[in-house]
Amino acid sequence: MKTVAMIFVAMLFGSPDTSLSTEKKPAPPYRAESSAYVVMGKDASTYITENRSFRFVEILGDDGIYEDVLLLEETYHNEHTDGMDDVRGNATVKAWTMQGGHRGELRWTFKENGNEGEVRDRFFRITAWGCCDSPTVYFYYNVLTGKKLYVSNSDLLEVWGDGDGPQAWRYVAFGYAGVHDFSRPPQLQYGSDKKVAQRFVSISFVVVV
Fold it and tell me: Whole-model pTM above 0.85?
């Protein structure tokens, strides 16, 4: 009995635990800093926020299969002044392709006048909040390339075309060219999530008799 007990103890305490030595360490974290502050003016104060954050996004290929994972860094700078109704904002978005748990070279970056943003299918949508007589403006960028495609005052109208996967979808947008920009007539835009195939200018006439 003593011999069996000694063998059991040796097996229990003598075998090394290899699971800890083979455990992979996580990649170094990516960090972003946000801030909020107030600028005191003579007649009014301006409240400023700068929010920076990350998100991972899985990207669908043209065949409908997920092919890439992107790391997005989003920065939103917003300002509101006492006595004013609007919130002035600008957005900066950067994208890297993830490779083996680490980010690769910078894939694309863009800046836009807007207050917030989100990923919608293969688009990144920047929203510029409306105020008073100015409507809300949506800017649609291709999340694969960072290319600006559509500008609209409402959600994109989605139309299912021929084929399968993302290439089968077609989109219709209607809106002014930018925030508080009414100097040019609104446009009707039609195309895919990679390019705008057609643009039409909407012009109306009022005849006074």
Answer: no
